[in-house]
Structure formats: C-alpha cells, structure tokens
C-alpha cells in the first residue's frame, strides 16, 4: 500500500481502507465487534486517538501496518499513564493469541532475551 501523505489523517486512512475492501461500517462491526458508530467517529476524526486494541483489530482487518496507525493516532510516544500501559498489554495479548503454540514459545523466548539484554546493560 502506498505511503500516507503527511496531511492524511487516521480517519481518512481507515475509511479509504474500509471502502477499498468494499466493507460497510456494519460489516466491520460484525467482523471486529467495534460498534459502527464508534468506527464512524474514528473515521470522521471525532475520536482522534482510539484505543490501541481497536487499531490492532482494524490493522489486521484492513491489512494495514499497525505502527503506522499508531503514529497517525499520535500514540507512538512513550506510554506513561496506567491506561496507556493497559492498552499496550491488551494489544500484546491479542497478538499472542493469534500465534501457533510454536510461535508463542518463540515470542516468549525472544522477550526473555530482550529482558536479559536490558538487564545486562
């Protein structure tokens, strides 16, 4: 998918991706359990910073890069609040649920290695 022009908003990117796939807001609600009214508010910019878990679901459905959606929502800065930490944990757990048992074990081993590197530093 082409890069996003700097002036393009999160809502515009999501709306275009939904329409390119021929999906209505109700179709997306049926596939993600995100209420169509909430989706509409995200697309129109009324909600500029949706939960990370919502962006995770939409990135998967629309085949968009999750990090790109986070950046467009202004959610790439270090998380300080406990609410933001909970959102990141929810996204991480959803990602783990999508892995096979072997991939799950590999992901956990990788996280353990990252932690060990940080502890050694």
Detailed description of the structure:
This protein has 121 residues and is mainly alpha-helical. The chain folds into two domains: 1-77, lambda repressor-like DNA-binding domains (434 Repressor (Amino-terminal Domain), Orthogonal Bundle), CATH 1.10.260; 78-121. It has helices at 10-20, 25-32, 36-44, 52-62, 66-72, 82-97, 101-120. Helix 1 packs across helix 3 and helix 2 (25-32) packs across helix 3 (36-44). The radius of gyration is 16 Å and the shape is globular.
CATH topology of the largest domain: 434 Repressor (Amino-terminal Domain)
Tally of DSSP β-strands? 0
Mean pLDDT: 87
- CATH homologous superfamily of the largest domain, by name? lambda repressor-like DNA-binding domains
- What class would the helix/strand composition place it in? mainly alpha
Task: State the distance separating the first and last CA atoms.
Answer: 38 Å
Strand residue percentage: under 5%
Order of helices and strands: HHHHHHH
Q: Determine the number of helices (DSSP H or I, runs of at least 4 residues).
A: 7
| Number of domains as seen in the coordinates | 2
């Amino acid at each position: 998918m082409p890069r996003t022009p700097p002036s393009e908003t999160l809502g515009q990117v999501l709306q275009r991706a939904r329409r390119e796939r021929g999906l209505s807001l109700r179709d997306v609600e049926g596939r993600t359990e995100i209420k169509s009214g909430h989706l509409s508010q995200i697309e129109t910019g009324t909600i500029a910073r949706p939960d990370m878990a919502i962006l995770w679901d939409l990135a998967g459905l629309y085949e968009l890069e999750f990090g790109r959606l986070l950046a467009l929502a202004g959610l790439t800065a270090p998380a300080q609040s406990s609410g933001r930490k909970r959102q990141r944990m929810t996204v991480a757990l959803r990602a783990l649920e999508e892995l096979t048992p072997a991939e799950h074990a590999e992901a956990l081993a990788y996280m353990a290695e990252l932690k060990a590197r940080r502890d050694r530093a």
